[in-house]
Amino acid sequence: MYRYDDYDRALVRERVAQFRDQVARRLSGELSEEEFLPLRLQNGLYLQKHAYMLRVAIPYGTLSSDQLRTLALIAREYDRGYGHFTTRQNIQFNWIDLERVPDILERLADVDMHAIQTSGNCVRNITTEAFAGVAADELLDPRPLAEILRQWSTVNPEFLFLPRKFKIALCAAEEDRAAVQMHDIGLYLYRDGDGEMRLKVLVGGGLGRTPILAQVIREGLHWRHLLSYVEAVLRVYNRHGRRDNKYKARIKILVKALGIEAFAREVEAEWEHLRDGPAQLTEAEYARVAASFTTPAYATLDAADLEHGRRLAEDPAFARWCARNLQPHKVPGYASVVISTKPGPEAPPGDVTAAQMEAVADWAERFGFGEIRIAHEQNLVLPDVPKRDLHALWLAACEAGLATPNVGLLTDIIACPGGDYCALANAKSIPIAQAIQARFRDPARLEALGELSLNISGCMNACGHHHIGNIGILGVDKGGSEWYQVTLGGAQGMSAALGRVIGPSFSAAEVPQVIEHIADTYLAHREGDERFVDTLGRIGLEPFKARVYTREEEPA
């Protein structure tokens, strides 16, 4: 993984010192909250319902074991013993005292971390899939370009005050596991017939109040032009994006208003001034960054480990975990392991305790090369585990409460913090997730339903990605009460889709039964091994609506 150089460290240390002074002036009353607001947002600090929340950047979802231990320390010493991993591959601490924030930032700087640009109208955390560099279906490694984008966009003065926040994602595998089409700029990497790295560039994606899938603006962009082309897109957006209405300020609204062809013409015209300028990448610069992503010292192992096979045959619980929580690895004898943060109603999705973080950090060193990934589904990933060590890892995960075999199943719920914490939320997300998890605790029932995603957002900002869940749940305000709107048919990946609203919203008490009805309808109409989204695509919404909105007669 990338390690900071002296320039990176100096920049982060200077920002810590600057913000320490700003916090002191806020605490003394020299700065009002209105004056302090843009300063704290530039450092990832939000004021939520009960306390300040600090969002820490995890670039493209990659952590070292030492960094994860530092996050555990912050959770234990500065928060309430846990952190919340987000759909942007970051971590949030929800109970932070303002006067202690500079000390937290110092702790982060000690391990080459920060909270810069995790908020505000700027280029946010650059993301890619959690299996980058190790996935069996990977075409090439997206991490060097992700890191180049991170360095270029960090404290770039031209783009620190955009009309609205701006998110960029990359994918370089056959399957899109980075939700690329939901981003302001999405980049698909591939090699052309001559072996040259190229990019398909998409723009104008986003969820929130107006969900839109990104559209292709350019095919076959040479990797050398990555920065200049992204800069051209940002300049057009910065120049024409609306600043009078934050609900219409995202680039997706501009692209929709102009049309993709007109927007593309604007970008191409701007790019003509930039394409052969200082932003053009060189082989030397790419090599400098790529050197941080060298292949680990993998052992030479058989693709099929006999001891692992014996364990699978003898232990059904272990076999079930392997079937759900492993991802194929490009190196024979290895697997990537997904650590589910969704054990059930005992813990909110994405929440991990300090002790659990420390355990995962230990496993990363014991069973891998000291690296951890964060998936946008809010799970943790150990990218390089020998198959011969999987049983030992599973036993340790069981002891730590991190061995739930539900990755990709209904209870692998994505959920934002919702109304329990967020001042913007219309409704709570966590209790709804917990109620659904309690309803669907039977492993056999979950396996019968198969691959089925359920995402929950507490408001239209869609931090829980409800639009792209096979089942989506959105909290809405209805006369001062919390109600929940349900969508069906959303999907991420290469065949991304936005869910459709099935009808009127439901009370919190009704939601678990509604999900039960949806699941039953799917099973009743499924043909063979058909997935939920395929059955829905074949039969449409009507059978689901009929079941959900049919009132069962009360017994006499």
TrEMBL record:
> What are this entry's molecular-function GO terms?
4 iron, 4 sulfur cluster binding; heme binding; metal ion binding; sulfite reductase (ferredoxin) activity
Q: Which residues form a coiled coil?
A: none
Instruction: Give the signal sequence positions.
Output: none
Does the record carry Metal-binding as a key word?
Answer: yes
Matches recorded under Pfam families: NIR_SIR (PF01077), NIR_SIR_ferr (PF03460)
Report whether RNA-binding shows up as a keyword of the record: no
Record EC number: 1.8.7.1
Which residues are in the Nitrite/sulphite reductase 4Fe-4S domain?
119-273, 412-552
Q: Where is the Nitrite/Sulfite reductase ferredoxin-like domain?
A: 48-110, 347-395
Q: Which UniProt keywords apply?
A: 4Fe-4S, Heme, Iron, Iron-sulfur, Metal-binding, Oxidoreductase
Describe the family membership recorded for this protein in Swiss-Prot or TrEMBL: Belongs to the nitrite and sulfite reductase 4Fe-4S domain family.
Q: What is this protein called?
A: Nitrite/sulfite reductase
